[in-house]
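Late entry, written up from scratch paper. The run itself happened at the end of the previous shift, but nothing got recorded in the book at the time, so transcribing now.
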Amino acid sequence: MKHSLARHLTRLALGLCAATLCWGCAPKPQKPNILYIMSDDHTSNGIGAYGGRFKDLGITPTIDQLASEGVIFTQNFCNNSICAPSRATVLTGQYSVKNGVLDLAGGLEEARQYLPLELRKAGYQTAIVGKWHLKHDPSGFEYFQVLPNQGDYQNPTLYSNDTTIGPARELDFKYGIKREVHAKKYEGHSTDVITDIALEWFGKRRKKDQPFFLALQYKAPHDMFDYAHRYESYMADVEFPEPDNMWDQGDWGSVGTRGAHDSLRSVIGSSIGKRNVIRNMGMHMDIDPSLPDSVYKHEAYQEYMRRYFRCVKGIDDNLKRVFAYLEEEGLMDNTVIVYTADQGFYLGEHDFIDKRWMYDEAMRMPLIMRYPKEIPAGTQCDWLTNNTDYAPTLLDFAGIETPDYMQGRSFRGGLDGSAQPSDWREVTYYRYYMHMAHKHNNPAHVGIRNKQYKLILYYGTDFQKRDRPKKDGNRFWDDTPVSWEFYDLERDPGENINLYDDPAYADIIADLKEKLYAERERIGDTDLEFPEAMARIEGAK
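Output as recorded:
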């Protein structure tokens, strides 16, 4: 009893001493884990939580649940709606002109993979699994296992910095890049395989004494929508609702997108039906070309939606597996979970397929975040954000101030639904450089958007003036007309009526033009190296 009392008094004295030494000291907060999930071409219109015409089909219950437990962003956009540039912007916090990835030929070497490098310096264990698409190895991450280029949907090959994965062999990374890497070919669908590898990383490679940053990046639902075989009957009997402007584009467009007297309508913007004679979804879906156009378009659209949403269903089901693991391991509530896509995608709107355009269906990026320690369930954020802001926000959670070389800002202050601060951006910038590429034939354009209005300049020339082949007399690599388009998004959310020549909007358009050219200067997108593009853009003032 006497010895027990003595030990108790000794512990009490030591505790008082420690308390005295640490008077005023707060315990160091634990940094949250970060799970960054990016799908390829998963438009917000294809997520139930965003509403829209597919919301009652129940295709994305796991993602919808994530949104109900966190925050959904309603005004989030990319600044260049194509895979490699958008991914580079996320990793660098920089616009395309700053990080150098202007188009699909661009790559990101290790020294510029800023987001994982900064997180590593802050003590994070970093890994990336799945689609990468930026040419150089993702060696800014401690561990990677990624698809070469686009990769394959079925039985994909992935390469890694883990030399035990398989023997070194040469892979072709396109654009003249070939190198030896350690790679392995897996059996199964890419979405399942990528999830399996991520779960293996969690179970065998994650260091429990460090916070983690895992980038889990799916190939799906990128074209050509090759889904896992188990979904063959999924949605087989569903009649998918069609957008009105798939059939009637009204007063949409300008001479830069339609041509004089609609002379470019048959070649600009790959279509659902037969309108575009070079590339349309009916060709990809193997629809009988002898069918009347209205039947051909309807059948192409319905088959397109079936394949697209079967790929989406595969992602949603696999995320259920990932979240179940996090719950079992007690990691769910101390992990900032992000769900996004590299850009939006057309599901028949404007009679378009693919992305690239500045219209909202392609420009809008879905963004959902869950972190119950800071984000109230069922929150909406209407701050005007873009993908330059992703890296600063994730670094903010890691306790890192936004580096000077990043052009975005942390939107962490909006995660609880707080109003957009007065010093936040009023407009977001957009630039598509790949003039008339890949038979999708989108004219090069630049523009600006605020929460109500959008102004687009179609300057219509290849910024590098590359010598592209003209097959069968195809003149469509050539310059297209310069033109402006202006949309009132409050009155016309579908962007069906170009109001650029409406005198009622003259002052608003003049103000947006001034802001557009000011943003070009601020961002550094002035085309000093591309005089023909600069002449067309500056000449349109």
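The longest helix spans residues 293-328.
(Scratch paper discarded after transcription.)
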